[in-house]
Design goal:
Chain lengths: 325, 306
């Protein structure tokens, strides 16, 4: 039951066994909880929260603390080396490229994706076939980053410009149609990083559009009517009515996308594997930990990722609190 | 997807009853034809990449190598051979039918387990009194910010020590754990909106915590459970990082891992990659199209509180 399932029937059986085992645990908890009559909140709460607290402690808290500890160890996790891994991240030229790329990702993706999403939300608002138009932009949200990576790798595909060889990647074909030379798009740094960022923008714009569209529709009628009676024009309406009203939603969207972008791994992994100077922290963490067996450095990279996420989350929560107040 | 966060936080209301929104009136005067044109241009831009690869997946190997997919319109010739090839382990060099099953086997328990546990926990936080409740809730809420990367290596070491490495258990346990903080937070937001009088009435009728949970709360929770369930389903189905770390072995690796490997080993075999991509996309896109309403509701779930 706890071994590797290899055949189809084994796999399916193991899945049902896992679900049944889990159901039995839940059933036991509920059965015991049902024995307690009256207001025995403490005991029942302990039962209800027990599995959750156990899983979070073993699965998140302990590994997190252990990684922080391991970030001060060497590649084989045997010797204590102080802050050396962090010094490497901040001074090694390769690691500096990783930091630079991560900065590009986090500074560009949230704003472009949110801008496009907002523009589109306004353009299709109350338009004919609004939900169909939205679904087109939103669809990339539902597919995996791996599939998105494959889709875009094909867009960027390059064929050398010689004889009667034709381009099969759409972007290079556009370049040729416009009279340019086809480029090895995913090889030239730092252009390639921005081409990978485009994939993330393509995915996240749908999220921004959905949230902002809902925010726009929630603006009360009377405010709009009052502004209209005051003779506010379309740009003024956007600048002084729409934008202030949806400002909290815009901030939440930007910060949420920024957090997701910091952790981006799949796109880089699928499209370049981090080669050609395209690696980012999340990808570098994976290569150092699992490919190069440089585990101390990998742990330090994970901790850096953690440290970078914190201020964005705190800002996000602050904004939420303020908008709720 | 790295989009686990969206569910948490969205200070917007979802009422769609308004006749005229600010944006609509701004747009109306914003020379409507140009606005429509811009919308169409954006929609086309966003659709072309997927559309191009979809067309490609039905073209012959020869055609794919020799010309772009846009030439198909003047010279249409379609085939299912690419799908046959990619689904045949001998030809593809990757076992997609098996990995499709692996994806399913991984995903289903990884959705059910955190949903059940989170409902119980959220109920305890919303309707029970016990010492340390607030601190515990804040601690769980705060765990949301832990990036998965921080946990992977120590978890792998634990799984090796428990002798379950290379099995589906690693994926079930880790995905379930990672989902809990967000699920508890969301369901708690939803549960605490249930009027206290409803719970009190049930309690006066002699109902204990178990029957209140099943008879009163569960029916009310269905939309929230559906929203989070779909979200978690797509998250696990589309995940690469966790699977690559714990389930990289061919016997149990899911579609994302196999497709990702294919881009490494057969990076120029577009007849395989295009068909393979769409085999991996078919389930999430179907889920999305059928259950779009719930999915969007899940995305806006932060607004449940108003």
């Amino acid at each position: 039951m706890f071994t590797t399932a290899t055949t189809t029937s084994q796999k399916i059986l193991q899945m049902f066994a896992a679900i049944l085992l889990f159901a039995a645990v839940i059933g036991l908890i509920l059965f015991i909880a049902g024995r307690f009559t009256g207001k025995r909140d403490r005991a029942i709460a302990a039962l209800y929260l027990g599995p959750t607290v156990l899983m979070l402690s073993v699965g998140l808290l302990y590994p997190g603390l252990r990684t922080i500890y391991q970030s001060f160890l060497d590649a084989s996790l045997k010797n204590f080396i102080g802050f050396d891994n962090y010094v490497t991240i901040l001074s090694d030229p390769e690691q500096l490229t990783v930091l630079r790329n991560t900065a590009f990702w986090v500074l560009v993706t949230p704003f472009v994706a949110t801008g496009v999403g907002l523009l589109y939300a306004i353009l299709v608002d109350k338009a004919r076939m609004e939900s169909f138009a939205k679904a087109l932009i939103f669809l990339p949200m539902s597919i995996s980053f791996v599939a998105a990576g494959v889709i875009w790798k094909f867009m960027y595909e390059f064929r050398p410009d010689q004889g009667n060889i034709k381009q099969i990647g759409f972007v290079n074909q556009l370049i040729v149609w416009l009279g340019g030379e086809p480029q090895q798009l995913l090889i030239d740094s730092p252009l390639n990083t921005f081409l990978l960022i485009a994939v993330m923008v393509w995915i996240q714009a749908g999220f921004a559009m959905t949230v902002l569209s809902a925010a726009i529709k929630a603006i009360p009628d009377d405010i709009i009517e009052a502004a209209r009676l005051d003779g506010v024009g379309p740009w003024g309406m956007f600048r002084f009515v729409t934008l202030p009203a949806i400002r909290p939603a815009v901030i939440v969207v930007i910060t949420t996308i920024a957090i997701g972008t910091l952790k981006v791994f799949d796109i880089v992994q699928t499209m370049t594997g981090g080669r050609f100077d395209t690696s980012v922290i999340a990808n570098e963490f994976y290569s150092q930990t699992f490919r190069s067996d440089n585990r101390g450095l990998g742990a330090a990279l994970a901790v850096v990722l953690f440290i970078l996420v914190i201020p964005i989350v705190v800002y996000n929560i602050r904004q939420l609190r303020r908008s709720e107040a | 997807m790295t989009t686990a966060a969206p569910l948490t936080t969205t200070p917007v209301a979802t009422t769609e009853t308004k006749k005229l929104s600010a944006a609509a009136s701004a747009k109306a005067k914003l020379t409507s034809p140009w606005a429509s044109l811009a919308a169409v241009v954006l929609a086309v831009l966003w659709t072309i990449p997927t559309f191009g690869l979809l067309i490609t997946s039905f073209r012959t190997t020869e055609d794919i190598r020799r010309s772009g997919w846009w030439t198909t319109f003047t010279n249409p010739l379609f085939t299912l051979d690419n799908y046959k090839a990619v689904l045949d382990p001998e030809q593809a060099g990757a076992n997609l039918p098996d990995s499709f099953l692996n994806s399913l086997v991984m995903t289903i328990p990884s959705v059910i387990i955190p949903l059940c546990l989170a409902s119980l926990a959220a109920y305890a936080f919303a309707w029970m009194n016990f010492p340390g409740k607030n601190i515990l809730f804040i601690a769980i809420f705060a765990l949301q910010i832990v990036p998965l990367q921080v946990t992977l290596l120590p978890l792998l070491q634990l799984f090796v020590a428990w002798d379950i490495d290379g099995t589906f258990w690693t994926v079930w346990l880790s995905h379930s754990t990672f989902a809990l903080p967000l699920a508890i937070y969301l369901l708690h937001n939803f549960i605490k909106e249930v009027p206290a009088s409803l719970i009190e009435a049930a309690r006066i009728d002699g109902a204990g915590h178990v029957s209140i949970f099943f008879r009163v709360l569960l029916p009310l929770l269905t939309p929230a459970l559906a929203a989070f369930g779909i979200f978690q389903f797509l998250w696990v189905w589309n995940d690469l990082l966790v699977s690559l770390t714990f389930a990289g072995a061919p016997a149990i690796s899911p579609l994302t891992v196999q497709l990702s490997n294919l881009t490494g080993t057969r990076g120029t075999a577009w007849y395989l990659l295009s068909a393979g991509a769409f085999v991996s996309i078919i389930v999430p896109v179907t889920v999305f199209l059928l259950l779009q309403r719930y999915f969007v509701r899940g995305l806006l779930a932060g607004s449940v509180k108003g």
